[in-house]
């Protein structure tokens, strides 16, 4: 359940009045998501025809100083035709406001649903949308270091400690102690970089059939390798949830969709097996940290770290590097 803060009707109506979006007509808390509180807000709309928005209150993990990067990136991408929600600016032009000391933003509502069992056609559309987003951000002026990058993986692994990892799964500590130094040592230099989403999981994509109608949740977006973004998306889309089964048809479709828009260089393609190991490590470690540091009965549902340890094992097997080979 992701509504951590109760906002009374009067407070919400007062907040909505700060934006030129008509009057508040209804509000519903949104259960999905773990980092922020989200509400579906309906108003009369500027023209009286009704309008829908997502109201987000930033609760965890997001630095207010990063909000101008995230929220102006939404505006930039939306203005370039990407299916990305634009930020509704308040009457003074602000991208976000403070409410009881917490930052809140109003964002355009986009139609569509998140798929849980993607088809190859959907994976292909996601590959295309990812590459389109990366290219559309080429003239975005914002720069943000990847706060969930390699230095953070080391810190997370240290904080969980071998015992914490072994408690999650007996082989986990050994896997991390083998893979983390190998991935760090082999990390490629000089590949093309720019603004990336860095967290394009199925729950961050809205779809209607095989059409991508929304790319959302840009709160890990940063400046990093384009091919790493594809590797993250590959790890997120091409396996069963528990990481036990790899789906080659989803993999080929995702990469083909991406390359329809932005062909990979030879250097990027050769780096993908290692970047995918990095992507799997990133999510195995952030999930492990959450697992160790979140009480089992907390409001937030912990995500399974082992599902990404399994993906890491898959990518670490040299025989599987062929999934990234040119066809
Ligand atoms: N612009 C939007 N249009 C329509 N629905 C949206 C939009 N933004 C968010 N949602 C809905 O709100 C839910 C939660 O949003 P979001 O994923 O941004 O939350 P979160 O707490 O940051 O999530 P998490 O940290 O788990 O990835 C989404 O699953 C989606 O159903
Ligand atoms: N998409 C991530 C959560 C945000 O980092 C996961 O599934 O672990």
How does this structure look, described?
There is one protein chain. 42% of the residues lie in helices and 16% in strands. With 327 residues, it is of the alpha+beta class. The chain folds into two domains: 9-108, Phosphorylase Kinase, domain 1, CATH 3.30.200; 120-324, Aminoglycoside phosphotransferase (APH), C-terminal lobe (Aminoglycoside 3'-phosphotransferase, Chain: A, domain 2, Alpha-Beta Complex), CATH 3.90.1200. The strands form three sheets. Strands 1, 2, 3, 4, 5 and 6 form a six-stranded antiparallel β-sheet that branches. A two-stranded antiparallel sheet has the order 7-10. A hairpin with a 2-residue loop joins β5 (97-99) and β6 (102-108). α4 runs antiparallel to α5, α6 packs antiparallel against α7 and α8 (266-293) packs antiparallel against α9. The structure holds adenosine-5'-triphosphate and L-homoserine (HSE). L-homoserine is lined by residues 199, 201, 283, 286-287, 303.
What labels describe this entry?
327 residues, alpha+beta, Phosphorylase Kinase, domain 1, Aminoglycoside 3'-phosphotransferase, Chain: A, domain 2, 2 domains, six-stranded antiparallel sheet, two-stranded antiparallel ribbon, 9 helices, 10 strands, binds adenosine-5'-triphosphate, binds L-homoserine, ATP binding, Homoserine_kinase_II, nucleotide-binding, EC 2.7.1.39, homoserine kinase activity
Concise summary:
The chain is α+β, with helices and mostly antiparallel strands. It is built from nine helices and ten strands.
Query: Any idea what the CATH superfamily of the largest domain is called?
Result: Aminoglycoside phosphotransferase (APH), C-terminal lobe
Q: What is the subunit arrangement here?
A: single chain
CATH architecture of the largest domain: Alpha-Beta Complex
* Count of runs of 4 or more consecutive helical residues: 9
Helices and strands, in N-to-C order?
HEEEHEEEHHHEEEEHHHH
N/C terminus separation: 43 Å
Major sheet summary line: 6 strands, antiparallel
Task: Indicate the mean pLDDT.
Answer: 95
Radius of gyration over C-alpha positions, nearest whole angstrom: 20 Å
State the name of the first-level CATH class of the largest domain: Alpha Beta
Structural class: alpha+beta
Query: How many structural domains in the coordinates?
Result: 2
List low-confidence stretches.
none
- What shape does the CA trace take? globular
Count the beta strands: 10
CATH topological fold name of the largest domain: Aminoglycoside 3'-phosphotransferase, Chain: A, domain 2
Ions, cofactors, ligands: which are bound? adenosine-5'-triphosphate, L-homoserine
Helix content: 40-55%
Q: Hey, roughly how much beta strand do the residues contain?
A: 15-25%
Protein name: Homoserine kinase
Domain Aminoglycoside phosphotransferase: 27-264
Pfam family, one: APH
Pathway: Amino-acid biosynthesis; L-threonine biosynthesis; L-threonine from L-aspartate: step 4/5
């Amino acid at each position: 359940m992701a509504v951590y803060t109760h906002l009374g009707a009067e407070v919400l109506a007062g907040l909505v009045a700060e934006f030129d979006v008509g009057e508040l007509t209804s509000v519903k808390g949104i259960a999905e998501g773990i980092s922020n509180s989200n509400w579906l807000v309906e108003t009369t709309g500027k023209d009286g025809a009704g309008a829908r928005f997502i109201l987000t209150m930033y609760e965890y993990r997001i630095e207010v100083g990063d909000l101008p990067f995230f929220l102006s990136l939404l505006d930039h991408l939306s203005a370039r035709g990407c299916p990305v929600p634009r930020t509704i600016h308040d009457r003074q032009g602000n991208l976000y406001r403070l409410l009881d000391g917490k930052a809140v933003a109003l964002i355009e509502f986009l139609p569509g649903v998140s798929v849980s069992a993607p088809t190859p056609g959907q994976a292909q559309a996601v590959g295309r949308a990812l590459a389109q987003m990366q290219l559309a951000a080429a003239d975005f002026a914002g720069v943000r270091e990847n706060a969930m990058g390699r230095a953070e993986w080391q810190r997370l692994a240290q904080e969980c400690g071998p015992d914490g990892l072994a408690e999650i799964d007996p082989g986990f500590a050994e896997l991390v102690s083998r893979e983390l130094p190998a991935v760090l040592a082999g990390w490629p230099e000089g590949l093309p970089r720019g603004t990336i989403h860095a967290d394009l999981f199925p729950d961050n994509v809205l779809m209607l059939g095989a059409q991508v109608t929304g790319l959302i949740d840009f709160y890990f977006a940063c400046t990093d390798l384009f091919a790493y973004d594809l590797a993250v998306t590959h790890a997120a889309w091409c396996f069963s949830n528990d990481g036990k089964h790899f789906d080659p048809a989803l993999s080929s479709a995702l990469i083909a969709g991406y390359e329809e828009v932005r062909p990979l260089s030879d250097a990027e393609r050769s780096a993908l097996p290692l970047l995918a190991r990095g992507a799997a490590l990133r999510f195995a470690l952030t999930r492990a940290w959450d697992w160790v540091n979140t009480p089992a009965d907390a409001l937030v549902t912990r995500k399974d770290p082992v599902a990404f340890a399994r993906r890491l094992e898959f990518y670490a097997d040299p025989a599987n590097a062929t999934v990234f080979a040119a066809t």
